[in-house]
């Protein structure tokens, strides 16, 4: 636990408490109303410094303090993400623009929180897909931002290699694998926690897909897995 005092009362946490992804503790006896959309820190009644994320969610002061809020800030971080992905052997044939958008713009009619999306155009008479751009929710922490860009680069990479009509668990699992590999290279406690939470997610598409693809990589190696996905649309 990185913070030895409770976020609500400022005293050392006693008995039962919850710990956010940043390692911040909150005693369970304090009344709360919701939690941070990004790190799951409980929001206790009367606490200041919280801000709106989407129309239905909020962001804690710690996540807000690490936020990528402007396109200029995004431009500072994107090269490092691309370099990190290139070191993993994942490079796009054509550069794709990354744009910050309001979180509500990409969270319409969805059950789970969406942090990014890749815009694509398919052609009936061509095997390839045009990647039109990547949109990332404004206000993510730098770690969430990098992991989300890495995930969306995965979608763009698959599209540029003609990997079409993949099952959602397979495609999202590959992209979560890329995101997890990027997080592993960050060597911070927060990045490690985010990677673990993603891997343990009960989501039947993202979490289950990530575990399915990772297990296949353990058995066959990443090169064989990606080759099989791109050539045959399935795991080896």
Automatic annotation (TrEMBL):
GO-annotated molecular function: ubiquitin binding
Classification via InterPro entries: DA1-like (IPR045218), DA1-like_dom (IPR022087)
Residue ranges of domain Protein DA1-like in the record: 125-198
Protein name: Protein DA1
Organism in which the protein naturally occurs: Umezawaea tangerina
């Amino acid at each position: 636990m990185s913070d030895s005092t409770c976020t609500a009362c400022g005293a050392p946490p006693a008995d039962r408490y919850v710990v956010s992804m940043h390692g911040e503790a909150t005693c369970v006896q304090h009344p709360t109303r919701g939690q941070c959309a990004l790190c799951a820190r409980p929001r206790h009644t009367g606490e200041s410094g919280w801000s709106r994320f989407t129309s239905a969610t909020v962001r804690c002061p710690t996540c807000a303090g690490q936020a990528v809020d402007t396109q200029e800030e995004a431009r500072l971080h994107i090269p490092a993400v691309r370099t990190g992905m290139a070191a993993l052997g994942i490079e796009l044939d054509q550069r794709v623009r990354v744009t910050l958008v309001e979180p509500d713009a990409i969270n319409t009619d969805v059950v789970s929180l969406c942090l990014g999306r890749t815009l694509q155009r398919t052609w009936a008479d061509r095997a390839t897909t045009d990647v039109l751009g990547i949109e990332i929710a404004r206000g993510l922490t730098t770690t969430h931002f990098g992991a989300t860009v890495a995930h969306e680069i995965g979608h763009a990479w698959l599209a540029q290699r003609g990997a079409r009509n993949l099952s959602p668990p397979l495609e999202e699992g590959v992209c979560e694998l890329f995101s997890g590999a990027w997080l592993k290279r960050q060597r911070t406690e927060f990045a490690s926690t985010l990677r673990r939470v993603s891997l343990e997610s009960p989501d039947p598409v993202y979490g289950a897909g990530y575990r399915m693809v990772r297990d296949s990589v353990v058995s066959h190696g990443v090169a064989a897995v990606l080759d099989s996905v791109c050539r045959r649309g399935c795991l080896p």
